TrEMBL record:
CDD domains: RHOD (cd00158). It comes from the Eukaryota. PROSITE patterns: RHODANESE_3 (PS50206). PANTHER family: CYSTATHIONINE BETA-SYNTHASE. This is Cysteine synthase. InterPro entries: Cys_Synth/Cystath_Beta-Synth, Rhodanese-like_dom, Rhodanese-like_dom_sf, TrpB-like_PALP, TrpB-like_PALP_sf. Residues 320-437 form the Rhodanese domain. It holds the Pfam family Rhodanese. It comes from Colletotrichum shisoi.
């Protein structure tokens, strides 16, 4: 056995499946919350058969259990085919005849996946009659409930496993009430050490928990993570792809726009010009500090109120047929200070401090929902729809520009979901200006 649990060579998979080449399967004592008899000297261990390579029950756990827990006094498992209880029980009794073997069955007409009811098993071909000392029946609701309790304690187990533990607890309760519990104790330890098998997982039976158990058995989940998840599941369901986020230099190359010369000469390839009003840099960024959440929230509430009509700032002037379409989501003030000529401006009428820099839109579920909802309204009807349709008919992409790339990233995903070839600029307008100006 490799102590590092590494399997090599042409027989690696076969060796991996051979239980003799792996450490013993975990034997985990259940928490006292699940063991009402702990003060009576009862210790209960879960044998995790689901830790086998294929999560199956192919290896006989008897020798492992005895080597791990020599003081075992009770072995309990659900009964399906009868192979596990017969093989394991027979081995354990051959080593210590005083070990009690408890077989747990379904209640007739109330099935739990995996085990059988006794009347469907008693004609089994395995020699179980000389091995099984006690038979117990457990309802499906009790099986699912105990499975859920095990999983909540960190022992991930399915309903068959829950049925095994519930059957074991019923057996111990009966032994205690009958005054026979102490007779099961090990002479050396003075304790009653019990093992039950966990032979299934809960995942394929999830619907059964809600069918078998009452609503009040499921604790309400009240936390910010779930609230955020519910919000996000109601919006932003379109695909996101990093390939749709352009590096600023690549975006500049795509626009084919060079830094404006002193005479304002236009680029000949796309006939686009970098329009920059004589507004000092300080005045364009005054009041924008750290990207505080309050400022951003205020900005979100006032954004996406429509498309600027024809007139100021060339907001809806027709772009040349060969030019990419630019949707600029920034405020009138920022757009007036600097924009790509021919860009279509979507008004952000009340720019709030902090909106332009440092905003982690995707770290705020409420912000995502607000922006996404407004973008949906924006792209549903109005002048923007015509702009997008013309871009599609011309076969040119739509470049969405915002302050730091966050809102445009969301807009790009939404537009892509509508069949528009949309792109955004990583880092937003500020990074694009640097690329256009030739700055690093």
């Amino acid at each position: 056995m490799d102590p590092l649990n590494v399997f090599r060579g042409p027989e690696s998979v076969a060796n991996y499946y051979n239980p003799d080449n792996s450490p013993p399967l975990p034997l985990v004592e259940i928490p006292d919350r699940l063991n009402p008899f702990r003060r009576d000297g009862v210790r209960i261990y879960a044998k995790l058969l689901t830790a086998l390579p294929a999560q199956n029950v192919k290896s006989l756990p008897g020798p492992q259990i005895l080597s791990q827990l020599p003081e075992i006094k009770v072995f309990c498992t659900t009964v399906g085919t009868g192979g596990c209880i017969t093989g394991t029980g027979k081995y354990l009794k051959s080593q210590n005849p005083s070990i009690q073997v408890v077989g747990v069955f379904n209640v007739f007409g109330d099935p739990t996946p995996g085990p059988r009811h006794f009347y469907g098993f008693q004609t089994c071909g395995f020699p179980w009659k000389g091995t099984v000392d006690v038979q117990r029946e457990v309802s499906s609701a009790d099986a699912y409930r105990m499975s859920m309790r095990l999983s909540r304690e960190g022992i991930i187990a399915g309903p068959s496993s829950g049925e095994a533990l519930q059957g074991l607890l019923d057996y111990i309760a009966e032994a205690k009430s009958g005054g026979k519990l102490q007779s099961l104790a090990d002479d050396a330890t003075g304790e009653v050490s019990c093992v039950f098998t966990c032979s299934d997982l809960p995942y394929q039976y999830l619907d059964g928990y809600f069918q078998k158990l009452a609503n009040d058995e499921f604790s309400p989940i009240e936390n910010e993570s779930l609230r955020a998840l519910k919000i996000l599941l109601s919006c932003d369901q379109d695909r996101h792809d990093e390939r749709w986020i352009l590096d600023p230099r690549r975006a500049a190359d795509m626009l084919n726009t060079r830094r404006m010369s002193d005479d304002g000469k236009k680029d000949e390839a796309y006939d686009t010009q970098l329009s920059e009003k004589s507004v000092p840099v300080k005045s364009r960024t005054s009041g924008i500090k750290s990207g505080g959440k309050a400022g951003f929230t205020g900005w979100i509430k006032t954004c996406f109120k429509g498309v600027e009509p024809h007139g100021q700032g060339n907001s809806l002037q027709e772009a040349k047929d060969e030019s990419p379409v630019v949707l600029d989501l920034r405020s009138a003030q920022e757009f007036s200070a600097r924009h790509i000529e021919g860009a279509h401006r979507v008004s952000l009428d009340a720019l709030c401090p902090g909106a332009a820099v440092g905003v982690d839109l995707f770290g705020d579920a409420d912000a995502v929902h607000r922006v996404w909802t407004n973008l949906q309204m924006l792209f549903k009807d109005g002048p923007v729809v015509g702009v997008l349709e013309r871009a599609n008919s011309r076969g040119v992409p739509v470049l969405v520009l915002c302050y730091n790339g966050e809102v445009s990233r969301l807009a790009t995903s939404l537009l892509r979901g509508k069949g528009v070839e949309a792109l955004s600029v990583g880092g937003g307008a500020d990074e694009l200006w640097k690329a256009l100006d030739g700055k690093k």
